[in-house]
Amino acid sequence: MSTPVQKIFIRRLNLLAIVSAILLGLVLVQSQRMILLSDLNNKGEALARILASVTLDAAMVHDYATMERYVQDIVVDPAITAIEIRRSDNEMLASSGQIKDGESGTLIVMKSITIGADIFGEVRISLSTARVNAISRNLLLATLAAVILFHLLGIILSNIALKKAVTTPLRLLNQAIERFRQGQLNEKIDIEEPAEFAEIAQSFNAMSETINRNFADIQKQQDELQLEQNKLATIVGSMADGLFVTDNEGIIFAFNQSATEITGFSEQEATGRKCSDLFQSTLCKDACALSHGGETVRNKETWLTTRDGRILSVSVSSAMVYDVKGDAVGGVQTFRDITAEKKRQEMYCHTEKLATIGQLAAGVAHEINNPLSNILGYAKLIKPGAKSEDIEKRVSVIVEQARKCSDIVKGLLDFSRSSGAEPAEFSLSPLIEKVIPMVRYQADKQGTAIEFSPGGEFTVYADCRKIEQVIFNLLINAVQTTPPAENIWVTTGRAGKNIYFSVADNGPGVAQDMHQKIFDPFYTTKPIGEGTGLGLSICAGIVAEADGSIDIETREGGGTVFTVLLPELEITV
């Protein structure tokens, strides 16, 4: 436990006062003792001079009784303990008491008796220092008493001054800080003196005001943040799409209600598990921004396995999540179940196929009728008795015409056959060359020429039957909108990392404001009864499913150009 400043101050003050008192007392007593000893010594020297003078006069007349009388008169003084007068040959002339050299408590004064330059004898007086010692002792005690008295008085006055100047302001500061710590942010301190504590109080009041103001701003921001969090939680909770958030390792730490409804996994079951382990699919690898260099992914089709083992087709969008420093901390993924939507799309595709087949029925019948007529004609020419060479030629023509009929019917059946999405590698140009003959009769009927100019051999990865339907629909539309005796151009090529094929016609074109509407379901510019309005919508859906895009633009000189971009298959060696 720390010591209060008042105790520290008193302790140090006491130590300082005691040391000062000891030093002062010693100096004072010693100086006074020196003065008293000096006075005693002067007194002894004065008496020694008198005795030396009296001894010399008495020695001249051999009056030794006078010397004794003087000695006895002087030794009556209590300060004088002994007197000796000796001749130079050490004969004692007069004495009182015995002088012992080095005896404590005595001061010995010596005076030589001279006759001219000759020394006749010596006077020695022993003086007692008892009185000096007593005075010094009393002085020391008086000094100590005075020091103690003044020291106690100083402590009392120091306590009063310390309390007023230090302890009370510190207590006020401590109480204010404690109240401030307890949450009273508008706390103020009123200290006027001393100036140092007044400055501290002013600084504390300024700090309190600033913190109170900042706290009010923070509280306001927290309220706004809480409101936004509540809004976000409401939005996330009411989303029809599933949503989950992962860290940089793909560990799920947020899972909304729609995700639970779609997948069957509860938030508790999903939280803390890796996305790939939970869904048992390549969803994270296919559609997570973490696996695509941080790029935002939109409407990427992939699949996942639900809790009860069903496999769902889902459309996933994802983006990275960053902290305030701009460092990636995870990703957020939204997904929706498109299984039923894909089934409807396949149904619409099949419906459009059937509608297109209906439009081709007359042409196909005519195409089949010509070889059938040839077959009948050549069959009639085979008569009994004809030469074997003629029969063989006519049979070969019949077989060729029958095969032609079979190829026409087979192509129509293959096109009309419904199938699921089965992405695979295929070459684009041969597929286009396969579709063109299916619409060539209708084009030839109105005198429209179809020119195909391949820009190279390109391999793509998509559903071949669906891309075939896109080519077919675009060609049929071009034939139907192109006036007689005009041309249709089909080309292929590379655009960056994509492969494209385009169908350009020489028809009336499409108005600029219709470029977006033309891909809407059931929107058609054809007369009633001649179109379903699903053709271009289905084409756009098929191309989007293959991670491609379809665009329309007005051709220079009139007409329309439809361009389909598809990702090129990356062939690794």
Beta strand %: 15-25%
Mean pLDDT: 77
Coarse morphology: rod-shaped
CATH class of the largest domain: Alpha Beta
Head-to-tail CA distance between termini: 77 Å
CATH topology of the largest domain: Heat Shock Protein 90
Q: By helix and strand content, what is the structural category?
A: alpha+beta
Return the domain count.
3
Helix segment tally: 13
Order of helices and strands: HHEEEEHHEEHHHHEEEHHEHEEHEEHEE
Bin the helical content. 40-55%
Describe the protein's architecture and organization.
- With 573 residues, this protein is an alpha+beta fold.
- The chain folds into 3 domains: 5-136, PAS domain (Beta-Lactamase); 240-337, Beta-Lactamase; 343-567, Heat Shock Protein 90.
- It has helices at 5-60, 64-75, 130-181, 195-238, 257-263, 267-270, 275-279, 283-287, 339-381, 388-416, 428-445, 464-481, 535-545, and strands at 80-87, 92-96, 106-115, 118-128, 242-246, 252-255, 297-305, 311-322, 328-337, 423-427, 449-453, 459-463, 487-495, 498-505, 549-554, 560-567.
